[in-house]
Amino acid sequence: MTNTRKLRAATQLVHGGINRSQFGETSEALFLTQGFVYDSSEAAEARFKGEEPGFIYSRYANPTTDMFEKRMCMLEGAEDARATASGMAAVTAALLCQLRAGDHVVSARALFGSCRWVVEQLMPKYGIETSFVDGRDLSAWEKAVRPNTKVFFLESPTNPTLEVVDIAAVARLADQAGAKLVVDNVFATPILQKPLELGAHVVAYSATKHIDGQGRCLGGVVLSDKDWIDEHLHDYFRHTGPGMSPFNAWVLMKGLETLPLRVGQQTASAGKIADFLADRQEVARVIYPGRDDHPQAEICKKQMAGGSTMVAFEFKGGKDAAFRFQNALEIIRISNNLGDAKSLITHPATTTHKNLTDEARAELSIGDGLVRMSLGIEDVQDLIEDIDNALSAI
Ligand SMILES: *Cc1c(COP(=O)(O)O)cnc(C)c1O
């Protein structure tokens, strides 16, 4: 496959980046090996000098992990990538590899819980300060810039309230400030949103979510241009060892083959369920970036190819109603995970966002009646019937 770049995503995700062995296997091989042997001392020397292509040690690179990285690069339109053991390893590497003591970061305040911990608790230990802003407010990004601002960081849509940040506009502000914009693109998926095309410099994923999509392996990936990876991530990655296991790379690569099918189905279901919920009197508000009543509907249309695989909604009856609803569901399971083939629901105020102060929760509009639903690939009619039944249990 030499011309995979010209092919469309669904084709690249099946054929792209294959390192086919001498056996000509159809399905990608799993190279479950730590090291590699060399034909001669001279060959080992040449490989270490970088004069000959080839693998050295699986903490650096591995043929199976390499296939996953190449396939992700094609999908994302990135020059280079490094696959990591988890999404948090990816986000942490993407930030720390390019920052040093005395640097300043501007970050959207609506972040995945562990991302917020890294920025708020870990980075200050290394002398890296962060200003948090409302990601939707462009003037807040601009005002927060300091002479030592090196990185802008955001996710969009956000967890759990599906706020949408104008990535192209924030990328322009980052450029003006001489900073790199890092986007955590997990909630959008690489099918629905391409941050690098919108002007972001670095994109990070938890591959645990939609990329696996079947609830098996943890993983992550950082993608950017070759210069940034060479300058910042290459050595950090080799020597701190956050790399993805070849086994997980194999599973996640097979996940990529079906990613467009699953995300397409999940997005279609999410849209139908958002519309169904919007008409129900038990529900105070439905948040779905693909609906015209979403506060950033226009930005969503501009930067996303679909309205998201997730729906958030708030019950008029608060926590009580949310709990009764969740407990009455029979197909949709209670779980803080997302992006799975199985539809999942969580109550953020008591699970994923319980560690925030009441004030921070209020700032992010995470009320006691809010639930976040990740749509799976079940028949949408069964999901609507499940939701309909559970609503009558409130
Ligand atoms: C899950 C998630 C992460 C962390 O990924 P892990 O694979 O669980 O480490 C980071 N950001 C977002 C938005 C996520 O949903």
Automatic annotation (TrEMBL):
The keyword Mitochondrion does not apply. GO terms for molecular function: carbon-sulfur lyase activity; pyridoxal phosphate binding; transferase activity, transferring alkyl or aryl (other than methyl) groups. This is O-succinylhomoserine sulfhydrylase. Its cofactor is pyridoxal 5'-phosphate. It is an enzyme of class 2 (transferase). Its EC number is 2.5.1.-. GO terms for biological process: 'de novo' L-methionine biosynthetic process; homocysteine biosynthetic process; transsulfuration. It comes from Pseudohoeflea suaedae. The gene is metZ.
